[in-house]
Amino acid sequence: MNPRILSRADLVNFGRNAAAAIAGGKVSGFSPAQAAELSDAILAATDTLDEADKQAVASVAKARTDVEIAQKGRLALLELMSGGKFGMRGVNSTSAEYEAVGFDPPADPSNITKPETPTKLSAVGYSNGVNVLKYKGNNVPGKVSYIVEAKKNGEADWVMIGTAQKQSFRHEGVTPGQPYQYRVRAQATRGLVSAWSNTAAVYDPQAK
Q: In terms of residue numbers, what domain contains 194?
């Protein structure tokens, strides 16, 4: 077996087995001192790799969790801000009041772009950890952006994972084979949004 092609976890097991074989006298050409020295060195390097691998796996898992928490927090804040702006419309706030809060004042209705709901959303997962989404829409280029949300199989909450200006999106850094569901909607200026597109999935267990 070529140890260079093994994963870190498999290489740890390989190293321990090799050290045990050498220490047990499986290599007749080594003197007892040579066998002990080489075996001890392999075990020490194996223990170092094992600890580093466990820390790396834990760090990746924590980073993914932190990103999901941050995305949920961002979405919650955006929804609150959107609700506040809608409430300002209900009380007929002036342009100066909108600007004081930091919002754009409502536009002339004749100049408002109404975003169309994206259609024919599809998603394809690749072994390099990238899921590619494509969708259709009749929106005028440059007038809208697209909000992309995802959720893992079995989870209840959708999480915003990004925005796009084109009718495609790359969800990067995912685990190949991890089931995901996606949906997309268009957003124009002044906070106007379309309905959600159809749902598309990658590695859908229901399809098997």
A: 109-207
pTM summary value: 0.48
- CATH at 199: 2.60.40.10
The reply to whether 118 and 195 lie within a common domain is yes
Tell me which long-range contacts 160-163 makes (C-beta under 8 A, separation of at least 24): 160/71, 160/74, 160/75, 160/78, 161/71, 163/187
pLDDT class for 88, splitting at 50, 70, 90?
confident
Compute the distance between CA of residue 136 and CA of residue 133 in angstroms, rounded to an integer.
11
Q: Which residue has the tokens 């007038």?
A: 143
The residue to which tokens 């009749």 are assigned: 138
* Residue 132 half-sphere exposure toward CB, CA atoms < 13 A: 5
- What sign for the dihedral angle of Cα 131, 136, 138, 141? positive
Q: Are residues 118 and 202 in the same domain?
A: yes
- Supply 86's token pair: 């809608």
Tokens of 110: 């004749």
Same domain, 127 and 47: no
Q: How far is CA 131 from the centre of its chain?
A: 9
In a domain, 203, yes or no: yes
Residues 6+ apart with CB under 8 A from 152: 178, 179, 180, 181
Confidence band for 122, pLDDT divided at 50, 70 and 90: very high
